[in-house]
Amino acid sequence: GNSVTQMEGPVTLSEEAFLTINCTYTATGYPSLFWYVQYPGEGLQLLLKATKADDKGSNKGFEATYRKETTSFHLEKGSVQVSDSAVYFCALSETSGTYKYIFGTGTRLKVLA
Amino acid sequence: NAGVTQTPKFRVLKTGQSMTLLCAQDMNHEYMYWYRQDPGMGLRLIHYSVGEGTTAKGEVPDGYNVSRLKKQNFLLGLESAAPSQTSVYFCASRKSPRTGEEKLFFGSGTQLSVL
Questions:
Q1: Contact A32/B at CB under 8 A
Q2: Hey, is the C-beta of B25 within 8 angstroms of any chain A C-beta?
Q3: Contacts of residue B43 in chain A, CB cutoff 8 Å?
Q4: CB neighbours (10 Å) of residue A79?
Q5: Contact at 8 Å (CB) between A94 and A2?
Q6: Which pLDDT belongs to residue A97?
Q7: pLDDT tier at B42 (50, 70, 90 boundaries)?
Q8: Do B48 and A36 touch (CB under 8 A)?
Q9: Burial tier of B46 (Cβ tally within 10 Å: 0-12, 13-18, 19+)
Q10: What's the rounded mean pLDDT across residues A25-33?
């Protein structure tokens, strides 16, 4: 079945550091890929998405590229801020059948001033 | 626009008690989902619905029931709560895949403790 694997956390960085959170997936067909972010005490919010191979999703300085050859969708940001502290979830959306979402286990990011 | 609203936000139950979690969305979405979030396990799908009057099992459906009598509401029931059901529950909704829109909209969660 389809699955998403993302790096274990927590990840602790100093402000202005470079961020990478790794995500790989296993899927049949051509799923869409997403990063969702969860701030403390809130539900998940869509951060960015990519719908086909080589697409780059971007939002709020975050980027991720859909790499079909490595089945990856790593999240990157060049300079993190304290306000980026949150839990980040990689996910895929099945594009046929039940159209379910499959989420990774989440990676907690803490940014120190 | 309220989006996705979950009630209650917090609840403490004793083992064997029952309760219903309510999810309401005002975006006319076709698809609705119930997830549970546990440390180290991410989000796991409990049940979902692809339209009014329809429900289907997800990854971890045991011990839960759902109903979608109205398009805007998706209810999650625990008939006999167990400590293993202590978790944070999230409801989510989205438009029909026919629209091409894939974004999931989440509620703010219900924190449930079963003693």
A1: yes
A2: no
A3: 44, 89, 103, 106
A4: 11
A5: yes
A6: 67
A7: confident
A8: no
A9: buried
A10: 90
